[in-house]
């Protein structure tokens, strides 16, 4: 059958999180493994020998020593910032005003939005990213563009109209009412269509009036199955500004909380400089914190407390934060997460990094039952990594004694050359 294919190679999946459980018990590695794909989903995983015997008729693709695993899940991006990635010399507020806002104004043109959405999805697929949660711009057409391009590629994505009604330039402000109306119309148009999910998206407290935050909270209460994405406590200057704008709030999180914008399905990007009260409230409600390591060093924001927060219990996802982040690659993002862990004296194991970039981010997006792993019934969004993609990596991998030593050089030094193939809903992108 055309829709059935057996992939052969090394395989990696997770039975549980390698944070709470020893790596050897949490991760499942087959040196010579197989993944059976049927109708866009993983039908079976196991030893190559067993699956080849059980499915002699299936078409086969043999990746040799290639590592077959879940495609990467990028839990916080701004696709409209594709064109301004790697812009020099500014910290958060200046960076937004100098680079980000002028670029986002251009998305008033639907043709431009469509062009950047296509470019962004092509670039990220070449880096092995199969799902992402993206901010769009204030323009509804920027959301239509992203969803239409993702739909054409068969991708599972989350996106929403970025809402801002103050502290943003002319051409980049909506109102409390129009943000509510436009977000609601987009949600009704796209949420649950094919593999697309709408996220209610107030940019961050400084660019929304209390009235707008209230309207976003009301919309979320009316559509509690939707995710809500925003930014939280990224830079100390930003936090001081939030204090000025919301003098009655005890802390940054409370500016969301008081308008109904703290919830289990909330995604809070950055979350670096948290007060004990904020940490406790986020953990208690089971919110998702999204770690954006290349962004946090690039914009000079600070060091996310992975070890401390993992122990407290909120869900944690990993993200590029394109284009505040300095890379489209989740390999580079894992490398940056490792480096930040080192600066905090708690290095992350390769299994933990790979889990964060797949199952962990999928769980943060409340999609862990559909994507982010290799297991029967999970959607077949996969990446195949070449662990010896370049001579510098290959000479190190050659000495490796186990999978973790073999994959770590690719995490630290790899790029899109390490991505041999990507499957989206069971279809190889090389055959598109
Ligand atoms: N805070 C508010 N908007 C943004 C954004 O676009 N990027 C980052 N990194 N932080 C933000
Ligand atoms: Zn962001």
UniProtKB/TrEMBL annotation:
Gene3D superfamilies referenced in this protein's UniProt entry, alphabetically: Metal-dependent hydrolases (3.20.20.140), Urease, subunit C, domain 1 (2.30.40.10)
GO cellular component: cytosol
EC numbers on record: 3.5.4.3
Alphabetized SUPFAM superfamilies for the sequence: Composite domain of metallo-dependent hydrolases, Metallo-dependent hydrolases
Keywords of this entry: Hydrolase, Metal-binding, Zinc
Biological process (GO), any one: guanine catabolic process
Catalytic activity: guanine + H2O + H(+) = xanthine + NH4(+)
Molecular function terms, GO-annotated: guanine deaminase activity; zinc ion binding
Aminodeoxyfutalosine deaminase/Imidazolonepropionase-like composite domain segment(s): 33-58
Coiled-coil ranges (or none): none
Pathway(s): Purine metabolism; guanine degradation; xanthine from guanine: step 1/1
Manner of cofactor binding, per the entry note: Binds 1 zinc ion per subunit.
Recorded family membership: Belongs to the metallo-dependent hydrolases superfamily. ATZ/TRZ family.
UniProt function note: Catalyzes the hydrolytic deamination of guanine, producing xanthine and ammonia.
Protein name per the record: Guanine deaminase
The organism's taxonomic lineage, starting at the top: Bacteria, Pseudomonadati, Pseudomonadota, Alphaproteobacteria, Rhodobacterales
């Amino acid at each position: 059958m055309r829709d059935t294919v057996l992939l052969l190679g090394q395989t990696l999946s997770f039975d549980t999180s390698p944070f709470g459980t020893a790596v050897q018990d949490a991760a499942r590695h087959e040196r010579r493994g197989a993944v059976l794909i049927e109708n866009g989903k993983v039908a079976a995983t196991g030893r190559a020998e067993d699956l080849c015997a059980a499915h002699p008729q299936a078409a086969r693709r043999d990746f040799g020593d290639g590592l077959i695993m879940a495609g990467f899940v990028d839990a916080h991006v701004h696709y409209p910032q594709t064109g301004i990635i790697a812009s020099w010399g500014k910290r958060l507020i200046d960076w937004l005003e100098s680079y980000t806002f002028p670029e986002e104004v251009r998305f008033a043109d639907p043709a431009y939005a469509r062009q950047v959405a296509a470019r962004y999805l092509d670039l990220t697929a070449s880096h092995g990213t199969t799902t992402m949660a993206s901010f769009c711009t204030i323009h509804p057409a920027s959301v239509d563009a992203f969803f239409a391009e993702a739909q054409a590629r068969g991708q599972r994505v989350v996106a929403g109209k970025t809402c801002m009604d103050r502290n943003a330039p002319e051409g980049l402000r909506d109102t409390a009412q129009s943000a509510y109306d436009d977000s609601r119309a987009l949600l009704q148009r796209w949420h649950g269509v094919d593999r697309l999910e709408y996220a209610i998206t107030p940019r961050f407290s400084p660019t929304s009036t209390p009235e707008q935050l209230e309207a976003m909270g009301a919309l979320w209460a009316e559509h509690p199955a939707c995710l809500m994405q925003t930014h939280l406590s990224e830079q100390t200057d930003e936090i001081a500004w939030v204090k000025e704008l919301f003098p009655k709030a005890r802390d940054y999180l409370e500016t969301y909380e008081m308008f109904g914008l703290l919830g289990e399905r909330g995604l809070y990007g950055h979350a670096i400089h948290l007060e004990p009260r904020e940490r406790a409230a986020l953990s208690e409600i089971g919110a998702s914190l999204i770690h954006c390591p290349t962004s946090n060093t690039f914009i000079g924001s600070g060091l996310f407390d992975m070890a401390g927060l993992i122990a407290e219990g909120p869900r944690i996802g990993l993200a590029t934060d394109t284009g505040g982040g300095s890379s489209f690659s989740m390999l580079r993002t894992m490398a940056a997460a490792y480096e930040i862990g080192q600066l905090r004296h708690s290095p992350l194991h390769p299994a933990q990094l790979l889990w964060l970039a797949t199952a962990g981010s999928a769980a943060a997006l409340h999609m862990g039952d559909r994507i982010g792993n290799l297991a029967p019934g999970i959607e077949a969004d996969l990446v195949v990594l070449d662990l010896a993609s370049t001579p510098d990596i290959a000479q190190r991998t050659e000495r490796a004694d186990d999978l973790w030593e073999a994959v770590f050089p690719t995490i630290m030094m790899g790029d899109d050359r390490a991505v041999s193939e990507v499957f989206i809903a069971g279809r190889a992108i090389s055959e598109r």
